[in-house]
Amino acid sequence: MKKREKRWVALAAVFALVFGIAPAANAMHIMEGYLPVQFCAIWGVICVPFLAAGFFSIRKTINEHRKTMILLAMSGAFIFVISSLKIPSVTGSCSHMTGTGLGALLFGPSAVSILGIIVLLFQAILLAHGGLTTLGANTFSMAIAGPFVSYGIYWILKRCRVNRRVSIFLAAALGDLFTYCVTSFQLAICYPSEAGGIGASLVKFLGVFAPTQIPLAVIEGLITVVIMIGLESYARPELRELRFVEGDR
Amino acid sequence: MLAIDKFCYTSKLRYVNASEKFALSIVTLLICIAAQSFVISAAVMAVMGVLTVRKGGLPFARYRKMMFWPLGFLILSTLAIVVNLSRTPLDLFAFPVGGWYLTGSAAGALRAGRLIVTALSGVSCLYFLSLSTPMTDILTVLGRCRCPKLIIELMLLIYRFIFVLLDIASAMTTAQNARLGNKDFRTAYHSFGQMASALLVRALKKSNALYDAMEARCYDGTIRVLKEDYPPKPGEIAAIVVFELILLILFAGRLTGWVM
Q: For residue A168, is it within any domain?
């Protein structure tokens, strides 16, 4: 082989390797030890106000109705189980839901921040998705940014009287995509590119994870629609019961 | 079921004092990440691997397989760090693509190498904790660290409910599989959605019943369980302190430049 041909074969091999492994990747948890210490601390501190707000709102509702405790715990376990099960994917490989959009729609964004950090801690310890030091960064992208965007989109579309299925789909899928953008940004500011700085690095991270995350967002949107339609058709009382978890809907 | 949870209950290190294990893994993890050095990471990976496999009794093949779990993320993001798209070639490699270069520098590759070993050693610390300490013990330690009681209580309940819901979910998935519920993508995603909505309904029903049962037994917001206490052994503490001191000395070496 000529040198040039060898290069092309090597390049093709790298691509095959990446896209062969890529579909097995999970939702985008930043793995243990992948962020420098100062960034772990910064993201942790950024999460604190949201967590404190969530904590106080949860504590208030629990003091009023003790039953909410059990309900919240079931909701947290539900998010964990949904995100730990394999979802069907087009390529037949294994991937997982994030459950952020679904959680935000069902339980409201403030409760999801607290449930989210607990679920992420469990995912790190029991499933080795994510990690202890990256908990802050993952909490911000998956339990705060994603749910708030999902909930906001759903709220706006509801005001605009868009079809319910479409608005649920868009809320879940865009929330998921936003999570993926935030995670890429978190990685990019830690590891700016030598040629082009943070911006170029952001584009690289977005590009590298796009083949796994964009289909995942679409599938997550579709599944969330099926779940919500299923719940609305035969669990109206239960849905009403969930509403007081949040109080302001 | 959850493999890690199963292994941690059968680990031979399960009855070692939980605070010791917690402190060892967290402090080591922090030093590892702060140092980002080849030597420290290799040492940590070796020690944590030996502790988990030799002392804990986990089969090595399983451990090796588990270390490969986060590989997808590791490969993709390291690729994004090493490879640059730029008009000017950098010093390590450069593939011309149109008018641009897919290129990388030696410094970038070194940094990525450091990152890979640091991340893997971080994962080995995490595995040491999660493969030797059951969640209930970790929660006890968190409670001692002044984590709010409400959160600990919530976590304890969530931990319990996870297994209840996993059981229900697996029964429903079996039923769906038996009825060709996963024969192609369309049916598969439909059945997954239906399974999830049925799961939530079941979860809410269960939580109602559970609340009634707990209320009938005078539940007042805390579940009091008997805590088995395994006192820390002086020998173990000494070994942990010596290990961390060695790591700190290596860390100082990394800062002054004589450790890679």
A: yes
**Number of CB atoms found within 10 A of residue A49's CB:** 11
From chain B residues 62-81, the ones with a CB under 8 A of any chain A CB are 66, 69-77, 79-81
Residue B171: both structure tokens together = 């029964």
Instruction: Measure CA B38 to chain center.
Output: 21
* pTM attached to this predicted model: 0.89
CB B93 within 8 A of CB B103: yes
Residue of B nearest to A4 (CA): B95
Under 8 Å between Cβ of A26 and A129: yes
Do residue B158 and residue A122 have CB atoms under 8 angstroms apart? yes
- List, for residues A154-197, the tens digit of each pLDDT value: 999 989 988 888 999 999 999 999 999 999 999 999 988 877 78
CB contact under 8 A, A34 and B119: yes
- Alpha-helix residue ranges (DSSP H) falling in chain A: 3-21, 37-64, 67-84, 100-107, 109-122, 135-138, 146-159, 164-190, 197-234, 236-243
Q: Is position A11 within any domain?
A: no
Give the whole-angstrom CA distance, residue A172 versus residue A242: 19
Pick from B66, B95, B123: CB nearest A33? B123
Give the type of residue at B78.
T
Residue B35, token pair as written in the block: 């140092």
List the single residue in B with minimal CA-CA distance to A121: B155
The ipTM, to two decimals, is 0.91
- Judge whether A41 is closer than 8 Å to chain B, CB to CB: no
| Nearest residue, CB atoms, B161 vs list A17, A73, A87 | A73
Look at residue A48 and tell me if it is in a domain: yes
Structure tokens at B105: 């520098």
Sheet holding B84-86, edge to edge: B84-86, B100-104, B93-97
Partner residue facing A194 (CB), from B72, B90, B206: B90
User: What pLDDT, on the 0 to 100 scale, is given for residue A13?
Assistant: 62
Q: Which residues of B touch A207 (CB under 8 A)?
A: 80
If you count residue pairs, one on A and one on B, with CB atoms under 8 Å apart, how many are there?
Answer: 265
What residue has token string 């935030």? Answer: A182
Taking only the tens place, the pLDDT of each residue in A221-232 is 988 998 888 888
- CA distances, B184 to each of B92, B180, B187, B188 (Å): 46, 9, 6, 6
Number of domains in chain A: 1
Q: Residue A186 is part of which domain span? A: 31-243
Q: What share of chain B in percent tops pLDDT 70?
A: 100
Let me know if A190 is exposed, middle or buried by CB neighbors in 10 A (0-12, 13-18, 19+).
buried
Q: Specify the pairing of strand B93-97 against strand B100-104.
A: antiparallel
CATH number of residue A59's parent domain: 1.10.1760.20
Residues B48-94: pLDDT tens digits?
A: 999 999 999 899 999 998 888 888 888 888 888 888 877 777 777 77
